[in-house]
Give the backbone structure.
Amino acid sequence: MSTPSSSGHTGQPSGSSGNPKPGDDAPPGTAGTGQDVCPDCQGSGQINGRACETCQGTGMVNKGVGGA
Ligand SMILES: [Zn+2]
């Protein structure tokens, strides 16, 4: 059983929203990272009625996943 792998699917971040936020560990699309609830606003996207700067009001940040 051998599968011909011609086209690689890694290397290029395929995302329309290439907009890293201050709270991001890495830009969206980075391998080993994923969306997580913003620790500053707890996912609400707002702090004291103002847009959270950490997640830019999205309530989510890109964090590194996977331990060790
Ligand atoms: Zn936030």
Q: What stands out?
A: The chain has a mean pLDDT of 80. The longest strand covers residues 33-37.
